Prior knowledge:
This is Pentatricopeptide repeat-containing protein PNM1, mitochondrial. The chain has helices at residues 2-10, 14-17, 38-55, 65-72, 80-89, 95-107, 115-127, 131-140, 147-159, 163-171, 180-192, 196-205, 214-226, 230-242, 249-266, 271-284, 291-303, 307-315, 326-338, 342-354, 363-375, 379-391, 398-410, 414-427, 457-473. By secondary structure, the protein is mainly α. Helix 5 runs parallel beside helix 7 (115-127), helix 10 (163-171) packs antiparallel against helix 11 and helix 12 (196-205) packs antiparallel against helix 13. It is extended, with a radius of gyration of 35 Å. The N and C termini lie far apart (134 Å).
Amino acid sequence: MWRRHLLRRLLPSPATGAGAAATPAPPFPRHLSTATAPTTDNSLASSLAAALGALSTTPPPATTPDAYFSLHFSDVRPTNALLAEALALSPPATSRAAADLFRFLVRRRSLHPSDGALAPVVRHLARRRDFPAVRALIQEFPTALGPATLDAYLHQLARAGRPTDAVKVFDELPEQLRNREALTSLVSSLSAEGFPSHAERAAKKVANEIFPDDNICTLLVSGYANAGKLDHALRLIGETRRGGFQPGLDAYNAVLDCVCRLCRKKDPLRMAVEAEKFLVDMEANGIPRDAGTFRVLITNLCKIRKTEDAMNLFRRMGEWGCSPDADTYLVLIRSLYQAARISEGDEMMTWMRSAGFGDKLDRKAYYGFIKILCGIERVEHAVKVFRMMKGYGHAPGVKSYSLLIEKLTKHNLGDRANALFREAIARGVTVALGEYKIDKRYVKAKKEKKVKKRLTLPEKMRLKSKRLYKLRMSFVKKPRPRMRD
């Protein structure tokens, strides 16, 4: 016991090692009762995150990670939520320290190595591309490997551009984990990150054990369509139909989006014709249109600046028994503002609120509207949308204030820009000071008064001779024009 107290005096605490103030923080009870003291968990998670940062510094502390955690967190009662929060607050370069923390909590503090405890650690390590540490943890705690951990591992491998390693991880799984859920997770991860061919080969490889269902076929078709491989997507749709399955509506919408994107790239004028052909094929196979189908069509029409066609399609959605979703409204509002149809954009925003999608008009959406309006030099309406955002309870951020201050200054509205800057300071938003040049188009040009120049004597004599010459020539009889034979 006396050795532990001696080490506590000699070694720095994790808060001071992470760059905290020199004054010691008041002690707090380290318990996990969220009902009586809700702020204690946050403080404990912050202390764990600071300890992870201290262990990841260069040079590291003299003690081992296990001894360091035992010294400072010997009375912690860990939970999965506490571990996940500490990892979320930790600095970026703390991958190996996070693995050491998990080992300490399991071995010293009786944390059960379950799937819910290992999943955030694997996600934390894989985001930093530390896959050797992930493999070491899985080999050390094989019983903790479950669906959540496997999904996080496969998703991060595919996101890091390692589809072969993801397939290898699936092949090396034990028999009880190689089920349809694991295959679906593998196919979903590879298809979402642009590797549908690897996903298809993996699904065909284990087809005798796990026969692909409608969900897996839909994921494969969507993966090929999102990757721009239209031929493979159509081939897979045909194979699925011949196999007695019908891909989901999401797969058909993804293929329709692929058709529109390819037409936009090669020949935008043929997009409507090719999309109509595919829609006829959908109806022939008994696949009805839904809100996602119209969203795909309206989005692609807006991207080629056919706003009027998109509005006509929006008005005809009721003929198929469909109602627009929040994304469709947002796309149309942006397109109407981009086309300088300001009043129609405001009306569409009102319709969106009436349809029950007012919660989707968040700070990010309003910033997008303000950015478009400032891009087409409609600063007055951008300020109106800015006030509307504040009126609905959305606090503007640094980007909104900075953009409006810059545009108001360029439009020679310095007083309003200064008032907006003072408002940002009062709200606690740190707006960086900058020098903005006023656009010449908005500067009133001063009219220069013409000052009559005083002529010199030679100039006066020259003008006088010209006047006299004109006067003499006025008395000379001019010849008549003769008719030519």
